[in-house]
Each structure stands twice: as structure tokens, then as C-alpha cells.
From TrEMBL:
It is found in: Plastid, Chloroplast thylakoid lumen. This is Nucleoside diphosphate kinase. One of its GO terms (molecular function) is nucleoside diphosphate kinase activity. The chain holds residues 79 to 229 of 229 of the full protein. Its EC number is 2.7.4.6. It catalyses: a 2'-deoxyribonucleoside 5'-diphosphate + ATP = a 2'-deoxyribonucleoside 5'-triphosphate + ADP; a ribonucleoside 5'-diphosphate + ATP = a ribonucleoside 5'-triphosphate + ADP. Keywords: ATP-binding, Kinase, Magnesium, Metal-binding, Nucleotide metabolism, Nucleotide-binding, Transferase.
Length: 151
């Protein structure tokens, strides 16, 4: 089953939005298969956002991501990479729709509270960067038949 990497950034953690954000993924029907809280180093943040290193905001972005605890997670479910990004909303909260996480809970692009992988390759790379294979738990949830059906 498809997996994606989701991180609650330091602003989301500090603002007490962990449970609200987890709830949106959980209520949708996705399954949490790995989770940890850590303060990433700036070098680690630079690795995570390596594809943005030419952008003018790269340094500030990496300083911000390493400025406090980040809640790193792997979520599993059909279409979770693409639909997870829909739940998150547009990069700039000024443009995110109401009903999305950023639309409902954030105001500016520099403090948009959550990260989600943007495609299958990125998801694989980011899961490998943030987690060891043993950190990921494979299990069947009791509600799976009710989410996906069984025929
Ligand atoms: P992530 O899930 O965090 O990767 O966001 P995203 O995929 O929606 O956007 P992208 O990967 O292009 O940018 C990564 C992060 O850089 C964003 O979440 C923003 O915090 C920040 N960012 C993106 N564009 C801008 C910008 O134009 N200005 C500033 N200051 N920050 C930006
Ligand atoms: Mg991105």
C-alpha cells in the first residue's frame, strides 16, 4: 500500500496543532505506520529540502525547520501521497482553500505548519531520510474493511 512522509513543522508543534493534524489524516481513513518527534539539525533540514537549494528562501526555510521539534510521520493508504497534499492545501496559506489544514490553521507561507511528500519518488526518499526500515510498522487495522470494502 502507498506511503507518504508527513511532518508537522516547529510552528505546528509549538502551536499545539499535533492532535488536530493527526486527526485529519486519521479521520480520512489513512493509517499511521511510523511517528517520532525530533529537532532536526540545519544540515538535516538542508538534505530534506535539497531540491530547493537555489531558492532565495532556502536558508530561512532550513533554519526554521531546525528551530524546534518536528513531528515526523509516515501515513499509509490508497492515493495517500496525492490526496494527503489535498488535505494539506496549497503551499501559501493565503491561497489554500478553507477546509484544508493550511487553509484552516496557517496564515503565511513561511509558517505553513506541515510538510507532505510531493510524489512517489520523493515519498520514498523522504521516508528513507527520516526513518530506518525497522521504524515502520505493518499492521492490519480493524476498520480497513469499512474504509475499503471487502468485495
Ligand atoms: P512542503 O510540504 O513544506 O515541501 O511545501 P510544498 O511542497 O507545498 O512547497 P515547496 O516544496 O515548493 O516549498 C517548501 C517550503 O518552502 C514551503 O512549505 C514553504 O514554507 C517554503 N516556500 C515555498 N515557496 C516559498 C516562497 O515563495 N517564499 C517563501 N518565503 N517560502 C516559500
Ligand atoms: Mg515540497
Amino acid at each position: 500500500m502507498e506511503r507518504t512522509f508527513i511532518a508537522i513543522k516547529p510552528d505546528g508543534v509549538q502551536r499545539g496543532l499535533i492532535s488536530e493534524i493527526i486527526s485529519r489524516f486519521e479521520c480520512k481513513g489513512y493509517k499511521l505506520v511510523a511517528i517520532k518527534i525530533l529537532v532536526p539539525s540545519k544540515e538535516f533540514a538542508q538534505k530534506h529540502y535539497h531540491n530547493l537549494k537555489e531558492r532565495p528562501f532556502f536558508n530561512g526555510l532550513c533554519e526554521f525547520l531546525s528551530s524546534g521539534p518536528v513531528m515526523a510521520m509516515v501515513w499509509e493508504g490508497e492515493g495517500v501521497i496525492k490526496y494527503g497534499r489535498k488535505l494539506i492545501g496549497a503551499t501559501d496559506p493565503q491561497k489554500s482553500e478553507p477546509g484544508t489544514i493550511r487553509g484552516d490553521l496557517a496564515v503565511v507561507v513561511e509558517r505553513n505548519i506541515i510538510h507532505g511528500s510531493d510524489g512517489p519518488e520523493t515519498a520514498k526518499d523522504e521516508i528513507n531520510l527520516w526513518f530506518k526500515p525497522d521504524d515502520l510498522v505493518s499492521y492490519t487495522s480493524n476498520s480497513e474493511n469499512w474504509i475499503y470494502g471487502n468485495n
